[in-house]
Write a structure and sequence with these properties.
Order of helices and strands of chain B: EEEEEEEEEEE
Radius of gyration of chain A: 13 Å
Distance between the termini of chain B: 37 Å
Largest sheet of chain B: 7 strands, mixed
Helix content of chain B: under 10%
Distance between the termini of chain A: 39 Å
Largest interface: A-B, 23 and 27 residues
Radius of gyration of chain B: 13 Å
Order of helices and strands of chain A: EEEEEEEEEE
Low-confidence stretches of chain B: none
Number of strands of chain A: 10
Oligomer: heterodimer
CATH superfamily of chain A: Immunoglobulins
């Protein structure tokens, strides 16, 4: 079975607020990635965090990884209407560069 | 860089027909391509992995005779849904990894929406 599962969430926030979403997985990983998907479109790679890293930043994004709890979080600071999308985490738990995606978090940023 | 395209972007077909979807890496050589399907409001499920010049490796539960995958060149992989039925209606997304960027980074195509009547 594919892993990298998080509880599917629907998050609705006001522009300017921060959005936090979580991801949990079940087996050991080498890395975890976050992707964004706009409705009916392909995926955009946001950030990759390796198993020996605890936190990583990219612009308004902050990702944490807790391998002891097998969980990760994605924080989007100062959200914008353009951040409205679904966000997925994916791990390399399947091996051979194959990705296991989580259920996704739908974020709506209200202008 | 690292652009992946898919064609067609959407297709409607009658039940029983076959549909071919193309996935191309436009500006890099894709040694490995992956095919996913995504049902509405659900996550991506990996269907198969294809390496250039070799047979695709299918995930458990995916019928290889129904979903034919060919990766004949370093820039093109095709997925053919044979004898399509309404339950095959889905969003099919490919990704590619290879000579662009990190070897463990997949670059995703825009997806193909298949509707089987």
């Amino acid at each position: 079975s594919q892993q990298g599962e998080e509880d599917p969430q629907a998050l609705s926030i006001q522009e300017g607020e921060n959005a936090t979403m979580n991801c949990s997985y079940k087996t050991s990983i080498n890395n975890l990635q976050w992707y964004r998907q706009n409705s009916g479109r392909g995926l955009v790679h946001l950030i990759l965090i390796r198993s020996n890293e605890r936190e990583k930043h990219s612009g308004r994004l902050r990702v944490t990884l807790d391998t002891s709890k097998k969980s990760s979080s994605l924080l989007i600071t100062a959200s914008r209407a353009a951040d409205t999308a679904s966000y997925f985490c994916a791990t390399d738990a399947l091996g051979n560069n194959r990705l296991a995606f989580g259920k996704g978090n739908q974020v709506v940023v209200i202008p | 860089g690292a652009v992946v395209s898919q064609h067609p972007s959407w297709v409607i077909c009658k039940s029983g027909t076959s549909v071919k979807i193309e996935c191309r890496s436009l500006d890099f050589q894709a040694t490995t391509m992956f095919w996913y399907r995504q049902f509405p409001k659900q996550s991506l499920m990996l269907m198969a992995t294809s390496n250039e010049g070799s047979k695709a490796t299918y995930e458990q539960g995916v019928e290889k005779d129904k979903f034919l995958i060919n990766h004949a060149s370093l820039t093109l992989s095709t997925l053919t849904v044979t004898s399509a039925h309404p339950e095959d209606s889905s969003f099919y997304i490919c990704s590619a990894s290879g000579t662009s960027g990190r070897s463990d980074t997949q670059y995703f195509g825009p997806g193909t929406r298949l509707t089987v009547l």
